[in-house]
């Protein structure tokens, strides 16, 4: 355990605090068992280390990744027992899905060491409630989204801005945009964000970012998905074919029969595959109405999860209209209910209708519709029910 403590101290010393993810101050650390889920590359490891450095007692905390060679010969439960005996109070476990029987041992740790608090991260693929020991009744779960446009700006210019609720943006978008325009030029920043700014590691090498993102996609399919679903290799290849099919024509209106023939799987397997790709953080499903959706219900439209994935997988087919819609859906996902609108692009919380477009987009499609807005690209500031689309990147 001593070597793990030394490695932890080294990591803590190196972790920067100048830029912090939005979840850092939202996690309630009074809970005894906390799960942080998120797609590969979203920044879960950095979040854990920042949480520790900012809010936890360093002398009685320990961070460890469960793919560490230490666990080739040692059990997680034994580590927790020894750590507790030496006065440990907070155990931070990264990438638990890479450790066999992780849920059983974490349950035992929770039951047998009430003085020890555990925070663990996992792939977005992992469904806590389906784990062998059903940790859902014990764990409080948070989901770490990719960088918002607001967070990306902080990475770019090292200056922080507050986030705004959806209602604040609707009611005060003109005033909010005016204040932000005194500090930033949003349009060139937004253009860059759409192409390369969604995952924090873009700062490591912007030139090679899209190539690294392609590698990340392969790792998600070959390692993260397989660690949870235990799929055969030929099925993983078919998942890649499905993803490329979506990428080349997103937003994709799936014809399940034709697509199942193209990919080479049955209808039920195809719909299940779409669900898997969504849980992996690679695609987003859009329905007219989420009530009563069954496991084998096909979505009305399929989008890639974010615009960077579009540029990584389908550069020549990255239609700007599709890019805007992909961004809009991504920023709302997990924060508000978002459905396909009968008359426009999106319906938020079953109340607010949105049409997405460029700066010349007309309002005729939503004319006469209550609570209807146009989210426009290419404008710095809006008026009335015309809102700059980039401003919705300030919701988290």
From TrEMBL:
Q: Which residues form a coiled coil?
A: none
In this protein, which residues make up the domain named AAA+ ATPase? 30-141
Give the highest taxon in the source lineage. Answer: Bacteria
Put simply, this protein is called AAA family ATPase
